[in-house]
## 1
Amino acid sequence: MTMIKTGRIKKLFFVTMLVTLFCSCGYQLVREKGIFGGDISSLYISVFKNSTYEPNISQYVTDAFSKELLSTGLFTVNKESSDGYLQGTVTKIIMKPTSLNIVGLAIEKNVSLDVDIALYRKNGSFVKRWAFSDTETYRVDNIDYEEYNKKDAIKRLSGRMARRFSSFLLVDY
């Protein structure tokens, strides 16, 4: 008799588990690609406008933002007929000495960069605007490496701003 009850209990438990499994709520852990519930899943990123006198600065910033948005996996970038487009402007760049050697020559400089970014849908309707600023220190004590160090510092701070932008997109949408 206990054998029959045990068998029935096992069958009842198995049926209950199957019913629970098939009638679950339907939660899902993975969202659709893109933002706004999948409305914008592909972005066109034009080369950022350069409002400064520093040549080639916009290319470094554009590359950093493109790479970061691709790495999130939320977007396809620069696809024909994209769902939205990103317009960026490098508004300000300032380089100033931060430390001097014993004779008063600069050893290190800070580069500060300000970038404005606007997101639009493919029909041209405005979505949102962001402004980012960041600063990076680089060495200038060897004149042969000063320009390389400056470009490397700009790439690093552009990468940080791009990661912040990406995290804003992930949190907001």
## 2
Amino acid sequence: MREVAGGCHCGAVRYRAKVESLTALKCNCSICKMKGFVHVIVAASSFELLSGANVLTSYRFNTGVADHLFCARCGVQSYYRPRSHPDSWSLNLQCLDQPDSGGFEVKPFDGENWEANVESIR
């Protein structure tokens, strides 16, 4: 396991987590594509929000399962609760303190065809 830390652009939201896999997913669904979100899935028990709970705002759409959390100050989504893993957290690789030196392998995920492909990442 590797410990990572990250947060939003303004620094109000900060977290740390223990990552089991060095695989990140680049999804092409409508929202991930627009945001440029690159997923690092971690177990809920391996995630700790250090600061910023009071500045997070939520956006839900479609089934309402995914809880897209954004910093209300800077607008960055550094992590959220994904529909594919509702008992986990998805960290944005781009928001980790050292995303490039983390050794993550980024793999594509066809989220445009989510229903047909979600089992491949569970």
